[in-house]
């Protein structure tokens, strides 16, 4: 039970990370001190970046080793062909398969900063750590970059920034271009249909949903859906059963996180009055793809779009 509670908190925390407390977009700029323009990748160093916590960091040369404490960042590094640079990753970094064999820099209680320092990475890619931890890592000569994209466009900016940092700028541009093209294809595919009302369940006891400002809310809107929790007061609000029944969504989405089954949801008291349940429009989606702001984000978006508008994909 303790492990289940920890995993639940992790999933909600991952989603909250996606929203972002800091709204400053990560960005990268070439340093005015650069002199070598002879090669496309080497010429960007020294590189100055502004991370999601509005910290300015200068990277003097291309990193040889990286530690990633966030699954989405780990996936980005691998997608850019630089997985061999990862000397440590979070216990939650389960994709691609190669990430499973990389040294783990902590456990379910969080990163172990002594372990990280012992690995002697050039760069630490994280999301949230306190000032004391930042100082501890920086005093050990490690560049700390906190990355916390709050929406789809910031996710693309994050990929480009990580590409610059690790020496894969061109690969990052190509990845983002392909992702944007796929996103546009999906948006075009569903836009000709009547919008449907949607509810996304984050947790069931108490019932929680994805509201305004959440990554999930944006995905639903891009998929030509109307999130019934869009008028909530927070990004991840509690949602009463009475209101859920009153709003009567046409589509019910949730993560296939191992804490419930479709049968469990169908059997809940009062749910027989909800249109999505009556018509069988209940979908349990891959939790990693719909919550991680990284390369598989578009696969998660397509899952949501297919759930809301299966008629748009009937020819595939």
Predict the CATH topology of the largest domain.
Rossmann fold
| Mean residue pLDDT | 89
The number of strands is: 14
CATH homologous superfamily identity of the largest domain: Nitrogenase molybdenum iron protein domain
Radius of gyration: 21 Å
Distance between the termini: 41 Å
Number of helices: 12
SSE layout:
Elements: H1 2-19, E1 27-30, E2 47-50, E3 56-59, E4 66-68, H2 71-79, E5 86-89, E6 106-107, E7 110-111, H3 113-119, E8 123-126, H4 131-139, E9 143-146, H5 152-166, H6 169-190, E10 196-204, E11 207-209, H7 215-222, E12 225-227, H8 241-247, E13 251-255, H9 262-266, H10 275-278, E14 282-285, H11 287-291, H12 297-308
Parallel strand pairs: 4-5, 4-8, 8-9, 10-12, 10-13, 13-14
Antiparallel strand pairs: 1-2, 2-3, 6-7, 10-11
Helix pairs in contact: 5-6, 6-12
Task: Please characterize this protein's 3D structure.
The protein is of the alpha/beta class. Helices cover 38% and strands 17% of the residues. Strands 10, 11, 12, 13 and 14 form a five-stranded mixed beta sheet that branches.
Brief overview, please?
By secondary structure, this protein is α/β, with parallel strands linked by helices.
Q: Keyphrases for this structure?
A:
12 helices, Rossmann fold, 2 domains, alpha/beta, 316 residues, disordered N terminus, five-stranded mixed sheet, four-stranded parallel sheet
């Amino acid at each position: 039970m303790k492990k289940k509670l920890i995993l639940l908190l992790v999933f909600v925390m991952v989603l909250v990370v996606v929203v972002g407390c800091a709204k400053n977009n990560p960005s990268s700029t070439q340093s005015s001190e650069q002199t070598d323009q002879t090669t496309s990748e080497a010429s960007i160093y020294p590189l100055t970046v502004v991370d999601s916590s509005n910290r300015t960091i200068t990277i003097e040369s291309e990193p040889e080793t990286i530690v990633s404490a966030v699954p989405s960042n780990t996936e980005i590094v691998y997608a850019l062909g630089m997985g061999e640079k990862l000397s440590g990753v979070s216990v939650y970094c389960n994709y691609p398969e190669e990430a499973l064999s990389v040294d783990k820099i902590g456990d379910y209680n969080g990163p172990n900063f002594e372990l990280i320092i012992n690995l002697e990475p050039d760069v630490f890619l994280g999301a949230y750590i306190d000032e004391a931890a930042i100082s501890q890592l920086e005093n050990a000569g490690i560049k700390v970059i906190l990355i916390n994209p709050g929406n789809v466009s910031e996710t693309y900016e994050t990929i480009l920034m990580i590409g610059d940092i690790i020496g894969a700028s061109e690969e990052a541009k190509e990845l983002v271009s392909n992702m944007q093209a796929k996103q546009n294809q999906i948006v075009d595919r569903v836009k000709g249909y009547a919008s449907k009302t949607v509810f996304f369940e984050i947790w069931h006891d108490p019932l929680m949903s994805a509201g305004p400002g959440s990554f999930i809310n944006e995905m639903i809107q891009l998929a030509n859906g109307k999130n019934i929790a869009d008028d909530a007061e927070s990004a991840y609000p509690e949602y009463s059963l009475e209101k859920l029944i009153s709003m009567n969504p046409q589509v019910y989405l949730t993560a296939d996180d191992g804490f419930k089954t479709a049968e469990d949801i169908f059997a809940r008291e009062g749910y027989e009055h909800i249109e999505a349940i009556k018509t069988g429009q209940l979908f349990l989606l891959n939790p990693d793809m719909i919550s991680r702001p990284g390369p598989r984000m578009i696969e998660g978006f397509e899952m949501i779009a297919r759930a809301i508008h299966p008629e748009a994909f009937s020819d595939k």
